[in-house]
Amino acid sequence: MSTSTSDIDYTPPTFPPPSLKPLVEEIAHLLTTRKETISIAETAAGGLLSSSLLSYPGASKYYKGGLTLYTLPSRIAYAGWTQETIKDYRGPTTDIVSGLAQYVRKDLESTYTLSESGTAGPTGGETRNRTPGYVALAVDCERGTFTREVETGLGGDRVGNMVRFAEEGLKLLREVIVGESTRGAYGGKGFVSKSLTGEGKESKA
């Protein structure tokens, strides 16, 4: 006995996640009114950044493209990495995401590129940047590369960390667009490392 699709009770999932939706709406409005564009290079967020930005109607006006560079070989294929780069790789850092953002923005010629790399869990390593919940973020634009480190405090909650990584990335992007991230120019005054309380700590890059 066949079942008609009309007989299936289907409730669409909430997307983007509630914590991302207002950020996406604001960023989409900012980019559209300013006639600016965005591209994405993400790893541990697994495509959440791109898909969230694309969920907004009219995304083709501001979205130039994106890459999900989850594996090291994908970074060789699409982000200019070499075997030597992989040999020296020690996990996500602000240097790593800065390089990804700069490379992708040059290729896609967008106004901004947002990049993300973190440790979603549930497993991790012994160093801070290998601890589940750690993420490094960067936004590259003509004014420079702005970076941030965040520790979510969610432990090994993989999905929770992925959503939070995307949320923190969108927050940084919004701040750079409106000119609030003035302390984090990579190669200049260092980066802003945000604690769980949201307090910024400046570190020299």
TrEMBL record:
Span of domain CinA C-terminal: 22-176
UniProt superkingdom: Eukaryota
Pfam families associated with the record: CinA
Name of the protein in its database record: CinA C-terminal domain-containing protein
Organism: Cercospora kikuchii
